[in-house]
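Quick one, tokens below:
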């Protein structure tokens, strides 16, 4: 139920440091510039990368399953000038089965939406839907993390980690963020993840919200095989958004449809 993972968390997601500090915006805006034509962003979420791409001139459709994430995205979209707004379309759909009756020159998946698909069937269904929407010779970019064996083998699962500097939201709420991975199913390659938002409200009350979700990790060569099975030609693989070689933490597959 990956749509429910984000409902109720859009605002916290958008402003937490893992999202704001990702350093991938220029990568995606440049990708749009070097692949002129229409763009589809699969799992567009709050529009963190979609809005900058539209501002950079792309005619872009954002697809997501979470009503809450799309509503946040619409809110940001409405603050843009008319010309930018006119270049954006938002669609609520499941990335494993969608039909937009349109083809795109570029299809992207920023910040790992694909990893919410926990079975090979879902992964292949998603890649098949994506391929159907790509113009012949168009570019598909799959963006996932490179599994870190040390972290996966760590059995200290009760511990919260990765404390971020507190965020102050416009209404005065102060939000602290930590993470926990209560379990790793190494047979099925699925990590149980938690993002823990500790919120201090302006009236002095406290609240703790835990966003729980699953992520499937996929190794580099496994992903290449999946992409080949789905009919894509992998043209290059990057390890980060500044053209790093594989080994820098991310796995970014630049594919031709
Ligand atoms: C980590 S967020 C990435 C959002 C955005 N691309 C970004 O870079 O900030 C993953 C997004 O994938 C969406 N998602 C998860 N499963 C989905 C599915 N089956 N179909 C469509 N979207 C899905 C979630 O709702 C969420 O907005």
């Amino acid at each position: 139920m990956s749509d429910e993972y984000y409902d109720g968390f859009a605002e916290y997601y958008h402003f937490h440091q893992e999202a704001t500090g990702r350093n991938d915006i220029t990568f995606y805006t440049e990708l749009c510039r070097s692949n002129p034509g229409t763009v589809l962003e699969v799992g567009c979420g709050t529009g963190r990368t979609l809005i900058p791409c539209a501002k950079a001139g792309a005619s872009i459709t954002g697809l997501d399953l979470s009503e809450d994430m799309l509503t946040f995205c619409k809110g940001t979209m409405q603050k843009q000038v008319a010309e930018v707004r006119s270049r954006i379309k938002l669609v609520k759909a499941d990335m494993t089965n969608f039909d937009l009756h349109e083809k795109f020159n570029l299809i992207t998946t920023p910040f790992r939406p694909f990893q919410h698909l926990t079975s090979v069937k879902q992964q292949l269904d998603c890649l098949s839907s994506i391929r159907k929407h790509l113009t012949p010779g168009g570019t598909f970019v799959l963006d996932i993390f490179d599994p870190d064996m040390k972290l996966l083998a760590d059995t200290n699962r009760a511990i919260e980690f990765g404390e971020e500097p507190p965020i102050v939201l416009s209404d005065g709420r102060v939000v602290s963020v930590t993470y926990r991975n209560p379990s790793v199913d190494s047979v099925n390659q699925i990590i149980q993840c938690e993002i823990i938002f500790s919120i201090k409200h302006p009236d002095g009350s406290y609240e703790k919200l835990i966003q729980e979700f699953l992520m499937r990790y996929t190794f580099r060569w496994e992903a290449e095989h999946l992409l080949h099975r789905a009919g894509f030609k992998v043209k290059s693989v990057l390890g980060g958004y500044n053209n790093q070689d594989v080994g820098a933490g991310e796995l970014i597959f630049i594919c031709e449809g």
